[in-house]
Amino acid sequence: MAKDAAATIVRGELTRTVLSVLLIAVLIGTSFWVLRPFLLSVVWAAMIVVATWPLLLKVQVLLHGRAFAVVAMTSAMLLIFVVPVLLAIQALVANMDTITQWIRALPNATIPLPPDWVARVPLVGTKIAETWTAIAAAGVPDLFARLEPFVRAVAKWLPGAFGSIGVLGVEFLLTVGIAAIMYAKGETARAGMLRFGRRLAGERGEAVVLLAGQAIRAVALGVVVTALVQSTLAGVGLAVAGVPFAGLLTAVILILCIAQIGPLLILLPASIWLFWHGTTAWAIALLVWSVLVGMLDNVLRPMLIRRGADLPLLLIFAGVIGGLIAFGIIGLFVGPVVLAVTYTLLKEWMADQDRTEGEPPQRGDAAR
């Protein structure tokens, strides 16, 4: 009888435990489903706030109050988004006549022959020169005929792209609003995350939360600052070389650098455009400048990331590139954080084993 009663109690406890776990899982899943439209904005806001928190504290000291600092930081975020858009629209409107003239002149334009130095480029120079000469001989109409399928694909893609830009604008405004709340309640949120980490894994969980913040700040410092330096230098090169729409192209370069694509996607066509218009000296100068600016991130970004977090550079680099491929732009920050936390937990787990094996035997064990 006693064994049957004990078995019944165990089965009851097991049933209650299973139902409790299922209920918690359902609540967590439902919560994520309800918050799904806001998750991306919340993640972005958290990354921005963590990365710029030291700057907020400095602004708070300068403005003598948290409220003024929150307003200043929120306004800066809005300006970062709004100002480039306004400058791009202004550049398009101011040069609309020039753009119209270019479009009208395209059917009658002639493609110049390649310079002599193109054929002397190692490995691919001869092939490029032959292809360039064939396109120049065929003329612009033949080039348009070849590009027609791509133009149709772009025309189908543009409506969806404009719709995505609208959605992106709404998500950015939502991100700014959430970030403002996090700026205002940052200490409370930090204390809550530390308590959550401590509740999960004690002091080690708290250390992991702090490590995640350091990794986010390190990647933001390395990626964003490097992108700003590269885009600034690239913009100076475009303006000095006399490339039109230098301001608009600089804004595009900034986006490409943050997305880890680099500035060469804009700088190399700009150099070709200068060659096309006969300004060979400026074209060569811009080409050399483009190579230097394009290689800058290989030196500057690792230095900045190492200053932000004491983690293996290969791990952070793999997190940046792998996160970008797996999750898009937000993966720039999510990838390094996930790898950093995993690396730290694995290292601590192995260190625990080493410490256990290195402990001296107990007195009783030695006697036996």
What does it look like?
Helices cover 88% and strands 0% of the residues. It is mostly helical and 368 residues long. It has 2 domains: 148 residues, no CATH class; 153 residues. Helix 1 crosses helix 2 and helix 7 crosses helix 8. It is elongated and about 95 Å long. The relative contact order is 0.07.
Strands, count = 0
Q: What would the principal axes of the Cα set say about the shape?
A: elongated
What is the ordering of alpha helices and beta strands?
HHHHHHHHHHHHH
Mean pLDDT across residues: 76
Portion in helices: over 70%
End-to-end Cα distance, whole Å, is 42 Å
Could you give a short account of the major beta sheet?
none
What structural category characterises the helix and strand content?
Answer: mainly alpha
Number of domains: 2
How many separate helices?
13
Low-pLDDT parts are: none
Specify Rg, calculated over alpha carbons. Answer: 29 Å
Beta-sheet strand percentage?
Answer: under 5%
Quick structural summary:
This protein is an all-alpha fold and 368 residues long.
Task: Give short descriptive properties of this protein.
single chain; 368 residues; mainly alpha; 13 helices; elongated
Topology (SSEs and partners):
Blueprint: H1 2-63, H2 66-94, H3 96-105, H4 116-119, H5 125-138, H6 140-184, H7 186-241, H8 246-258, H9 264-276, H10 280-308, H11 313-327, H12 331-358, H13 363-367
